[in-house]
Write a structure and sequence with these properties.
CATH superfamily: Sortase
Distance between the termini: 70 Å
Structural class: alpha+beta
Oligomer: single chain
Largest sheet: 8 strands, mixed, barrel
Order of helices and strands: HEEHEEEEEEE
Number of helices: 2
Number of strands: 9
Strand content: 25-35%
Number of domains: 1
Shape: globular
CATH class: Mainly Beta
Mean pLDDT: 82
CATH architecture: Beta Barrel
């Protein structure tokens, strides 16, 4: 085979491979984001419609106080797998950052929003309410995860109550098998007893999944939605 033909064939192959790679990058950066935005908007719309009809049963809010508050809270109706039940806001990530929280952490669920670890506590309940989200792709919900700092507010609403959690430390880096981070009293969190906690998890590095970033927070306050948005929402 002539050298010129070999060179031309190799060049065409490189161009084809390059085009495929570019299309894949466009898919990751743009198309998954578009799909996630559409899915996210749909889930939030579903929640708002349900809340407007008063068709969701939720627990009574806890008394304001630190994560170790001891006032009893009725157990809420079980969340349905793959279904949305709350909306999360993190002011640190910008005014337009709002994501639905769905039950479960399956691949399909995390394409539509954030996912609640099914074996962990319910929102506002005593124990550890743990939530996972993509760092990149499907809308990049936790792209800015490393920016979280102690004192940052994480706000959630279930349609009747606003729950304000406060981040207690900079994100902690660990491996995927470290399941103790979502224990009722999460290991390595610094908490020394039962309380009402929130755990957020995402992948690390930014475009990989060899490790996990984890942020822990305690329930700082709760108030009825009829009282308006919490002051922390505007901080």
């Amino acid at each position: 085979m002539p050298v010129r033909l070999i060179v031309r064939t190799f060049s065409e192959l490189c161009i084809t491979v390059g085009a495929v790679i570019m299309l894949f990058v466009v898919y990751l950066l743009l198309w998954t984001g578009v799909k996630a935005q559409t899915a996210m908007d749909g889930e939030i719309d579903r929640l708002l419609e349900q809340w407007g009809q008063g068709s969701i049963t939720v627990p009574e809010p806890p008394a304001p106080g630190p994560g170790r508050a001891t006032s009893p809270i009725p157990t809420p109706t079980a969340y349905k797998s793959g279904e949305p039940f709350a909306v999360m806001y993190i002011p640190r990530f910008g005014k337009g950052w709002d994501w639905p929280v769905l039950e479960g952490t399956g691949v399909g669920t995390l394409k539509k929003g954030l996912g609640h670890y099914a074996a962990t506590a319910a929102l506002g309940q005593r124990g550890n309410f743990a939530v996972a989200g993509h760092r990149r792709t499907y809308g990049d919900p936790f792209k800015d995860f490393p920016k979280l700092r102690p004192g940052d507010a994480v706000l959630l609403t279930d349609g009747t109550t606003w729950f304000t959690y406060r981040i207690d430390a900079k994100p902690y880096r660990t491996v995927p098998g470290d399941v103790g981070v979502v224990d009722p009293v999460p290991r390595k969190s610094g908490y020394d007893g039962p309380g009402r906690y929130l755990t957020l998890t995402t992948c690390d590095p930014e475009w990989g999944s060899s490790h996990r970033l984890v942020a822990w927070a305690h329930l700082d306050a709760a108030q009825p939605v009829t009282d308006g948005k919490p002051a922390a929402f505007h901080s």
